[in-house]
Design goal:
46% of the residues lie in helices and 16% in strands. With 286 residues, the chain is α/β, with parallel strands linked by helices. It has one domain (17-143, 211-285): Alpha/Beta hydrolase fold, catalytic domain (Rossmann fold). Strands 1-2-4-3-5-6-7-8 form an eight-stranded mixed β-sheet, sandwiched between helices. The relative contact order is 0.15.
Length: 286
């Protein structure tokens, strides 16, 4: 065995994996911790999977008494490979349909980055499945000029990942100064599960997303966990989103990708946000 060849072992024991056929949506892959506690559905970010985004939070949420569901969105991880182009609306419909099929609606939805846009769409279009939302490291839109330049590269990204997914991610890791180790082997292996076409189209979808015209009219209990040192999604835009959603705000001094590496800072804020949303939801339900 070469010295730089590692088995892609996950960093923690993940909640049990499930694949469920949902009429009109196909087979959906998700993690399900089970249990009798209140349910929380976790929605991951762009180019990630449920595990890549949330592995650092699973244990703390379960230890706090929650039943944790975490779905892989279309084209991401083990998520559905559909012939139709990637649409955020379809991801929201998938997540809502899964909750209905499991008879777990309504529940609290936690959306990180791209998952936050999907959570907003669920609250607008599938209100019966949403008891409340926690939005983190996300925004109402991604239309500033710097981000717009990124979307123009999506065709190139799609081609590179289609031709050489492992080599492309190796180059990305090398450019970021991340050396091959036993710890990073799993991350790279998970990233290669993604559909190149869907990654590119998801990037374009984020560039088209804009909830500013309608979010204020969506009345659900809400909280925001703001990553205050975020270099990918401006903290200013995160605060604007929180104000528009009427969200209770919790801030953590983290960058966009540090929610797992700094779980000790991120998870307490997430738990407080969930408690705040649950308290309001309980009052509304009474």
């Amino acid at each position: 065995m070469r010295s730089n060849t590692y088995v892609p072992e996950p960093p923690v024991v993940m909640p049990p994996a499930r694949t469920l056929g949902v009429p009109g949506h196909g087979e959906l892959f998700f993690r399900d911790s089970g249990g009798e506690g209140p349910t929380v559905m976790l929605l991951h970010g762009w180019t990630a999977s449920a595990d890549l985004n949330w592995w650092g939070a699973y244990d703390d949420l379960i230890d706090a008494g929650y039943r944790v569901l975490a779905i892989d969105h279309r084209g991401h991880g083990r998520g559905l490979r559909a012939k139709a182009r990637f649409r955020l609306d379809d991801c929201a419909a998938d997540a809502a349909a899964l909750l209905r099929e499991l008879e777990l609606a309504p529940t609290i939805i936690v959306g990180y980055s791209m998952g936050g846009t999907i959570a907003q769409l669920m609250a607008r279009d599938h209100r019966d499945t949403v008891a409340g939302i926690v939005l983190s490291a996300t925004a109402q839109h991604f239309r500033e000029s710097e981000t717009a330049k990124l979307w123009k590269w999506m065709g190139f990204v799609s081609l590179a990942l289609s031709l050489a997914p492992r080599g492309t991610w190796t180059a990305v890791f090398r450019h970021a100064g991340i050396r091959p180790t036993a710890a990073t082997a799993w991350f790279q292996a998970e990233l290669t599960r993604n559909s190149a076409r869907d990654m590119a189209e998801a990037g374009r979808e984020l560039g088209r997303f804009d909830s500013r015209p309608w979010l204020g009219a969506v009345k659900v209990p809400a909280a925001a966990v703001i990553t205050a040192r975020d270099t990918a999604v401006s903290p200013r835009k995160q605060r604007e989103l929180a104000a528009a959603a009427g969200a209770t705000v919790f801030e953590v001094p983290l960058d966009h990708l540090q929610l797992t590496s700094q779980a000790g800072k991120y998870n307490p804020a997430l738990l407080r946000a969930l408690e705040a949303v649950q308290a309001v939801a309980d009052v509304k339900a009474a």
